[in-house]
Structures are given as structure tokens and as C-alpha cells.
Amino acid sequence: MGMTIAEKILAAHSGHDAVVPGQLIECATDWVLCHEITTPAALRMLEERGMDRVFNPDQIVAVPDHSVPAMNIKAAKMYQKLKSWVHEKGVKHFFDVGRGGIAHVVLENTGLMKPGQTLVSGDSHTCNAGALGAFATGVGSTDLAGAIYAGKVWFKVPETMLIRVTGQTQPGVTPKDIVLEVIKRIGADGANYMVMEWVGDYIDNLDMEGRFTLTNMAIEAGGKTGIVAVDDTTRAYMSARGVTPDQYTEYQSDADANFKVVVEVDASAVEPTVAYPHIPSNGRVAGSDRIAVTHAYVGSCTNGRITDLRDVARILKGRRVADGVQMIVVPATQAIWKQAAQEGLLEIFVDAGASVSYPSCGACLGMHSGVLGPDDVCISSSNRNFVGRMGDPSAQIYLASPATVAASAVAGFISDPREYNDTINAAD
Ligand SMILES: CC(C)[C@H](C(=O)O)[C@@H](O)C(=O)O
Ligand code: SF4
Questions:
Q1: Does residue 69 have a cis peptide bond before it, meaning omega lies within 30 degrees of 0?
Q2: Closest atom, ligand 2, to C-alpha of 35
Q3: Lowest CB count within 10 Å: 107, 147, 205, 349, which one?
Q4: Are residues 252 and 320 in the same domain?
């Protein structure tokens, strides 16, 4: 029996020639990603047991991102804890406030994380990095503590779901719509403890930014991670970061690999999709109901990349955010913020009446810088619309692509971005 990409990576990191789904393995971690929310608890566990060390300070990447710049004293203390640990242990890759942004997006851009590697973090969207042809997954604080201490974690080898996306999307339809459509179809637990491997000519033609959006949301279908095989797009992305193919290992799934489920998606039939409250699987076609919004949020590790900001700018250019709508745009990292500034995108946002914020998770999980109040209605480019996710439990969150968020912000109600296709194409 052949193996999938994920099985091959896990075998290579656990000293086995081959592994099968269900097998328990001790897996070496090439990278541990640490932020200020879950790392302090893991560090306390280690300290209490007198196991206060790191397996290798060069293989830890630390990025404060959720509650920074701190909005209260508690957050300031968590940030201090992460920072003092980084200095004490000599953690090599530290992206402090002002030099980083949202951890997953910072990491994907560094060139540190390479195809064929393994990554764990105390964050559920760690699956994001799977787009690089790597095995990346979120773990709880105990496993995080173990990884920091020993550079190893226990895994049960997951089954793999194959998602084949063929054809091309209509103008105005983006990777976010594809992933919302898939989660709608399979359900919020449809990929429970499975690897979601994306293939097909749609994926072949997709840029890395779009691939990260797909793998980022694996956890919203219960997936262990998402993964995309290495191809020329991945190689070019790595080489732009100074990493050559001899520095990483490429894996492909074998023709006779065992896929537990196969999902077929015709990209040309996918419409702009909005996940209605309060679960990401609750997808409907954008604009099928007239839903007034009070807030519009573009950002997060799912959709705060430069390509997302360009999509938003194409719609906002020469237009105004509707009265009564608070729109915030949060570039995911300092580097993306700078590029957006250089491309003139930030000026377009400001001229349209949107507020541009510093890179952080703040609004995405209702911690700061855009917390929703009672009965607010937000159209969000993020990945979760659970009750209370962005603030008050009575607030309603609708998940969509950046283009749909922008179209809705301009109209004042949830709208189909394809209404702007003519002007977008004319502007290009
Ligand atoms: C705070 C963190 C543990 C959490 C996660 O794991 O996903 C957050 O990033 C989120 O998106 O809800
Ligand atoms: S941007 Fe949102 S989803 Fe991503 S890590 Fe931060 S809080 Fe979690």
C-alpha cells in the first residue's frame, strides 16, 4: 500500500519506513511556534516540574500576536512572560511587536518552515503551514510543553481526505469561497482528525497565498491539518525566501495511497459563499438575503495577506464604506502592511473611510481593536463565527472572502462581489 504525503512526513520524523493511519508514533518536531496566549501555560508546567529547558532554541519561533500591543495589564504580563523566556533561553527566531504580526503568516513568510518538515504550536490554525507541503498542527498546552522540552510529540497517524478541485472559478470567486463551500458540504466535523490534502488543476494554478487560505481552515472542518504537495509554485515561493530545493524534502502521495474520503469540487460552480452564524459550515450564496451589517473586518491568518488586500482595494477604490458601517482592515504582518502602503492600498482604504490597524489577532477573536457589541452584525474575512467569538454573544458574525467583505461594506448589507466585476476589470 502506498502512502500519502502526511504519512511519509510522519514516517520520516518517527524513525519508521512506513506508517499507517491509527498508528501511534513519537514524532520529532522541526519547529515549535510560540505565541503569548498558550506558551506561558506550557512554560509554567515545565517550571513546576523542574523541566525548565528548551530542546533547541534555534528551532523555536516566537511571535506575540493575539493580545499585542497589550490592551490591559494581564495581556502585558503574558507578553512579558514570552519575551523574558525568549531572552533567557536564547530563542533564536523572535518576531517582537513591530517586527512580526500574526504568527502563522509571519512564519510562512520567513523561509524557516520548509516543505517536508513538521511544526506544532499551541494554536489551532497551525495547519496553515501545510500549504508548504509540510505537516503542521495545533496541540494543547501539555503537548506544547513536551515539544518545547523534548522536540517531540505523540501523534496518532491521521487518515487523509483528498479534495480534488478542478476547473477555474468565476471572476469574483476566491479560495475562501472554495474552502467555505467544502466545509459547507462535509460539515464542521466532516474531516475529524483527518489530513485534508488539496489537489486538482485549480490548486495547481493557485498562488501560495490562496493555498494558505485553504489549509488554514482545515481545523474548521475538524481536520488535523491541511496539505498541498510541493510544485513549482512552492519552489518559487521558497526560492524567493532564499531557500533552495536541496534544503528541503518534497513528498507526493503515491498513486495507490489510501484516502479515506474523496471530495470532488467543480470550481466553476462555486459561488461567493458566506458562512452564516454561528458555524463555519453554514454557507449560503452571498447576497441571497438582505442582511444589514454594522461592521466589516478584513484580516486574520486566513485572509490578511497582500492578495486579499488587493482584492479589497479593487472594490473600495473610488468608493465609500456605507454610513453606519465600521470597517477595519488589518494587514497580517508588518511586511504585508509595508507592501500595502507601497502599493497605495492603505490610502485607498483610508479614503474609503476604513480604519487600518496594526498587524495582530485582536479583532479576529474579540480581544481588542474591534470588539463587537450587543447585536452588532459583522461580515468578516476570518475563519470562525462562533457565538461570542468577536465580542458580545448576541453579535452575529458572517464569514466571507475579502472581496465579499468589501462589497458588503460599500453596500451596507451582505452583497455579492461579482456586482463589481465590470469596474474591477475596467480598473485593471
Ligand atoms: C488563542 C488561540 C489558542 C486560539 C486558537 O488556538 O485557535 C486562537 O488563535 C483562535 O483562533 O481562536
Ligand atoms: S488571526 Fe484569528 S484565527 Fe488566526 S491565530 Fe489569530 S486569533 Fe486565531
A1: yes
A2: 5
A3: 205
A4: no
Residue-wise pLDDT tens digits, 374-404: 999 999 999 999 999 999 999 999 999 999 9
Pocket of ligand 1 (CB under 6 A): 37-38, 66, 123-125, 138, 365
Integer angstrom CA distances of residue 43 from 51, 93, 141, 311, 386? 9, 17, 9, 40, 29
Q: In the prediction, which pLDDT does 1 show?
A: 86
Separation of CA 214 and ligand 2 centre (Å): 15
- What is the percentage of the chain residues whose pLDDT exceeds 90? 98
CATH of the domain at 362: 3.30.499.10
In this structure, the residue with its CA closest to atom 2 of ligand 2 is 364
Give per-residue pLDDT as tens, 163-189: 999 999 999 999 999 999 999 999 999
- Looking at residue 427, what is its pLDDT? 52
Residues with a CB atom less than 6 Å from ligand 2? 66, 102, 104, 123, 125, 300-301, 361, 364-365, 382-383
Name the domain boundary from 246, 266, 286: 266
Query: 228 and 104 in one domain?
Result: yes
Q: What is the DSSP letter of 413?
A: B
Report the atom number in ligand 1 closest to the C-alpha of 219. Answer: 7
Cα–Cα distance for residue pair 74/79, rounded to 1 Å: 9
Alpha-carbon distance of 365 to 300, in angstroms, equals: 9
Conformational region of residue 371, where left means phi above 0, alpha means psi within -120 to 50, and beta covers everything else: beta
